Each structure stands twice: as C-alpha cells, then as structure tokens.
Task: inverse folding
C-alpha cells in the first residue's frame, strides 16, 4: 500500500544518534511533517483507505545525506498485508508505523549538470505485528542509485534500486527491483512543478507490481519553510487507485 514509512517522535529522535558523527550542529538539517491519504482495492473486492501522518528528518553534511522517517497510520479495510489476501471482516487499525532510516553519498554533485548518488535504506518493523493493514511485521533492506540531470529550464531524475523483503511466517517474497523516472520544472522563484512514474516488481508469483504516477507542486513560503502538494494515480492493482498529500518542511 502507498504510505510514507514513520513512527513515534521519540523513536525519530532516537534515530538522530546516526547523525552525530557527521556534525549535526554544523550542517544543513530539515524536519518535515506530512499528511498522506491513499485509497484502493489492491486487486480485492473491497476498498482499503490509509491515512498516514509522517515525521521526517533529513541531514546533509558534505557528500552525505541521512534520513529518518516515522508515521502514525490509520487504515480501514479487509486487506492482509502479510499475504495479500482479503479477510472476511472489515476492520480499522491505527498506531505507530514502521521506521525508515537511510543514507546516500554523492559521488558526483553538480547542480548545473549531472549528479550521481548511491545509497541504502532499511525499514525497521516498529509497528504492531498484529496490525496487518499497516505492516508486514518484518524489516526490509534496499540499495539504490540516483541520477539527476539539470538543464536551463527543467531537470530530469531517475532511481534504480533493489530490495530484500522481510518475510512473515508462511509467506515467501521475491526480492524486487524498483525504479523511478521524473521531471521537474521551475515556474518562478521558489516554485516547482513536476511529475514522476514509480515502478516496483511484484513480490509474489500471483501478486501485482506497483506502478503509479505522482504529480507534485512545491513552493517556498519563507527562507526556511517549504510546502509541497502531490497527487497519486495508480496504474496497477498493486498501487492505490488514488492518493495525495501535503508536506511542510522547515530547514534549520
């Protein structure tokens, strides 16, 4: 299902210990608060709706960028995330979601030309394992490369990655490749419009891949604050039918 991964504020702050060796006080740090909603049937007979409120941290020091993200999630439906089946009773589950932490390193960093990053991230299963609407109850690991190309009036970006998925008891997941391809265009000072296509291979032989298109609009509302709106349209049963949200970011 489509929702950004997160957890309690205390767990987010605990994850900041990762930032200490990189000089938190002398580098750029930002915090984001978002609201994300997605709705879809995911190939079943019933619709599942998921509301997520993520808190995220980003810290950049030299060529390194570190991220941590943690959600509060509320979901309603019959979907069983563990094995992709539909349960008989419709239910509502809510609580702290899974914590995601990651790091990227810029091998090439040219804002007026090509940029090339390598990185990795892990989703740590911090949610209640019994709440199968919002978690698999297992941790995942991913490696990826990011490419960015800037032109005079637009920018193109792409990601290619590989994940190793944690498997709940009795479930066998494939290790999928995932990718993203997008474009962004500056409209005026501090305002950007863009779109991206995201794809991830199916996790099982009978499952569906994730394929979805996201459109976004970002605007700077002050020297240290930014707001971003986005909408999502799913192109496969593995994706939500529709989704969207808003993210507020403050840079320290």
Result:
């Amino acid at each position: 299902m489509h929702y950004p991964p997160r957890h309690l504020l205390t767990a987010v702050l605990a994850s900041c210990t990762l930032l200490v060796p990189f000089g938190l006080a002398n580098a750029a740090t930002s915090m984001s608060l978002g609201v994300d909603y997605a709705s879809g049937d995911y190939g079943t007979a019933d619709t599942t709706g998921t509301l997520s409120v993520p808190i995220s941290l980003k810290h950049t020091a030299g060529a390194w960028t570190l991220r941590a993200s943690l959600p509060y999630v509320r979901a309603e439906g019959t979907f069983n995330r563990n094995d992709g089946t539909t349960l008989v009773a419709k239910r509502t589950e809510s609580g702290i979601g899974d914590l995601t932490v990651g790091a990227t390193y810029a091998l090439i960093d040219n804002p007026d030309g090509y940029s090339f990053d390598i990185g990795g991230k892990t989703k740590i299963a911090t949610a209640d394992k019994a709440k199968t609407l919002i978690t698999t109850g297992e941790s995942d690991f991913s490696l990826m490369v990011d490419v960015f190309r800037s032109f005079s009036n637009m920018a193109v970006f792409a990601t290619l990655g590989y994940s190793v998925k944690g498997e709940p008891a009795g479930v066998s997941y494939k290790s999928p490749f995932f990718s993203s391809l997008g474009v962004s265009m500056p409209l005026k000072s501090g305002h950007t419009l863009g779109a991206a296509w995201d794809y991830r291979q199916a996790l099982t032989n009978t499952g569906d891949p994730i394929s979805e298109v996201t459109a976004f609009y970002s605007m700077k509302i002050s020297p240290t604050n930014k707001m971003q709106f986005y909408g999502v349209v799913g192109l496969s049963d593995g994706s939500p039918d529709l989704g969207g949200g808003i993210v507020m970011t403050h840079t320290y």
